[in-house]
From TrEMBL, chain A:
Gene3D superfamilies, sorted: MetI-like
Protein name: Binding-protein-dependent transporter inner membrane component
Annotated localization: Cell membrane
Keywords on record: Cell membrane, Membrane, Transmembrane, Transmembrane helix, Transport
Domain ABC transmembrane type-1: 73-262
Predominant localisation class: membrane
Transmembrane segments: 12-31, 73-96, 108-129, 141-162, 183-204, 241-262
Highest taxon, organism lineage: Bacteria
UniProtKB/TrEMBL annotation, chain B:
Source species: Gracilibacillus halophilus YIM-C55.5
UniProt keyword Ligase, yes or no: no
Protein name (Swiss-Prot/TrEMBL): Binding-protein-dependent transporter inner membrane component
TM helices/strands, residue ranges: 21-45, 80-103, 110-135, 161-185, 217-236, 268-288
Keyword Transmembrane helix: yes
Length: 277, 292
């Protein structure tokens, strides 16, 4: 009896603490929704409005007048999608070579990729900016996309997973007369779908949220990605919080929906591409 | 016929021996162009100063200037504050949440996990902007709550001390759930027999935590620690958007200072010296910690 009471108490305490945690982690998103659906004046009043309002359409109109938000959304989507596919192709080809071939330089090249994971990104930005200026690539999609297409962490994850493909399967395909390239595309890649999905989602989130580099290379409003556009909007002297929160919601909601649908892949993406529950 | 011949020709090129080089070629090319070249160029640039529009060799000038630059020391200090205060707090919260979520028979585990992880998919810019509103001195929700329970309003973003606290708060909010997920996976990999054996020996929950959980979790903890350290040395998005590095440089980080020197003053030589020095600092810090 005593024991039972204690365990009920413990359970209540545990859920109580966890719910406080949930309020802290989800609360700010609720506040974003409140902000996005109320006029700025309502948001900045005391006591503050705590319920979602009906000012969404007006905020959208104002936001659209202030910055080319739909264009920014389009830029973010196009850049992230191209980046994910380019990076998956390049990194899975490299990961496949490291995992399934015994060749001179395998270890050395792989080790130097791993070492590069430790290099802070900002150590490369100044020469890259100079290089892209010289090439006249400033303010283009490729300037944002290209530098990180070869993503060492993705190569590492894909290599780990590719190791699981049995050599006998590849050998059998060779005996059937399949070329190396078609073995990669028709045999290795299809068996890797879950891992590629996990890595792809990881890369997508990374690029979607990428800020510093697009801030540096994108120089006109029409070419900004969402984070850069929002940051500029927030930096204005007279901030309209309704607009700003709606813009923030536009950048947050798509990725959150993708996350809710594909959570398992998200989690396995940061856990080394292994899908387990 | 011609197609057939061409096919044969192709097959000669890409054999099981040469194939790995073909597969690696794009990655290596991009790696050399966008990783190796910039690092070397950064190093060279850090020994140069622009004179009348042309970069000229100037020896250690940039580094000498760096070592006597009070703002650089301030940025360095701020970065280390984050490293020594924010990282431990965040990892502690993450571990606590992970341990709670690992309790057997916990109901609604998936709900909690999703809730805690959600901030980690938000961009740092979005996170900062939401907190600018929450932490607004006159109209923010946080100060409203503080005022309504009789506490004084806090100048979250405009007072040096509290601006740092805010930066720590936002960074922790954004990353705690991310680390929790990694730690939870680590906890789930600890074999259950260990706990059962300890229970038979009559060990308490707390003893089990310190004598089984922590030692077993050490590699994973180290992993989250290294990730957070790398992140701290790159900290830019949050101070840029939350506080503009202020007030009075109180939230200026190394990377932010690098950005200012490079892209506000276009002093690429000096900015490169900052980049190279911060690179070595982070390497040393990792090396020092991974010794154990």
């Amino acid at each position: 009896m005593m024991d039972n009471q204690q365990s009920v108490l413990r359970r209540v305490l545990l859920h109580g603490l966890l719910i406080v945690g949930v309020i802290f982690s989800i609360g700010p998103f609720y506040w974003m929704v409140v902000g996005a659906t109320n006029p700025s004046g309502e948001i900045l009043s005391s006591p503050p409005t705590i319920l979602p309002g009906s000012y969404l359409v007006e905020n959208m109109t104002n936001l659209h007048d202030a910055i080319p938000i739909l264009r920014n959304l389009f830029n973010s989507i196009v850049i992230a999608v191209i980046f994910v596919f380019a990076s998956l192709l390049v990194c899975s080809a490299a990961g496949y070579a490291f995992a399934k071939y015994d060749f001179k330089g395998n270890r050395v090249i792989f080790a130097s990729f791993l070492l590069a994971m430790m290099i802070p990104y900002q150590a490369t930005i100044i020469p890259l900016f100079q290089l892209f200026s010289a090439l006249d690539w400033i303010n283009t999609y490729r300037a944002v996309i290209l530098p990180q297409v070869c993503y060492p962490f993705a190569i590492f994850l894909i290599r780990q997973n590719m190791k699981g493909i049995p050599d006998s399967m590849i050998e059998a395909a060779r005996i059937d007369g399949a070329g190396e390239i078609s073995i990669f595309f028709k045999l290795a890649l299809p068996t890797m779908k879950p891992a590629l999905a996990a890595v792809g989602i990881f890369l997508f989130t990374h690029q979607w949220n990428n800020f510093m580099w697009p801030l540096i290379v994108m120089t006109t409003q029409e070419n900004y990605t969402l984070p850069v556009a929002l940051s500029t909007l927030a930096g204005l002297n007279s901030i309209d919080y309704g607009q700003l929160m709606l813009g923030t919601a536009i950048s947050v909601v798509p990725i959150m929906v993708v996350f809710l649908i594909l959570q398992k892949h998200f989690v396995s993406g940061i856990l080394g591409g292994s899908v387990k529950e | 016929m011609a197609v057939q011949a061409e096919k044969k020709e192709k097959r000669k090129w890409i054999t099981p021996k040469t194939a790995p080089y073909f597969f690696l070629f794009p990655a290596v090319l991009l790696f050399l162009a966008f990783m190796v070249y910039p690092i070397i160029a950064s190093l060279i640039l850090s020994f140069q100063t622009r004179v009348e529009g042309v970069y000229q060799f100037s020896g250690l000038d940039n580094y000498i200037r760096l070592f006597s630059d009070p703002i650089f020391y301030k940025a360095l200090g701020n970065t280390f504050i984050i490293l020594f205060v924010q990282v431990p707090i965040m990892l502690f919260i993450a571990l606590l949440l992970a341990v709670f979520l690992n309790v057997k028979f916990l109901r609604a585990r998936a709900f909690y996990r999703v809730s805690f992880f959600t901030p980690a998919v938000t961009s740092l810019v979005a996170a900062s902007i939401i907190f600018i509103l929450l932490l607004n001195t006159d109209y923010g929700l946080v100060n409203f709550i503080l005022a309504s329970i009789g506490l004084e309003k806090v100048e979250w973003l405009t007072n040096s001390f509290w601006a740092r606290v805010s930066l720590i708060l936002v960074t922790t909010w954004r990353w705690a759930g991310y680390n929790m997920v990694i730690l939870l996976a680590g906890l789930q990999n600890i074999p259950n027999d260990l706990y059962e054996a300890a229970s038979i020996d009559g060990a308490s929950q707390i003893r089990k935590f310190f004598h089984i959980t922590i030692p077993q979790l050490k590699p994973v903890l180290l992993f989250t620690f290294v990730l957070s350290t790398i992140g701290t040395f790159q900290l830019f998005d949050e101070p840029y958007n939350l506080t503009n590095g202020g007030p009075n440089n109180a939230t200026l980080t190394i990377t932010y200072y690098l950005y200012n020197q490079g892209f506000n003053y276009f002093d690429f030589g000096y900015a490169s010296a900052i980049a190279i020095l911060s690179y070595y600092l982070s390497l040393f810090y990792h090396g020092y910690n991974l010794r154990w």
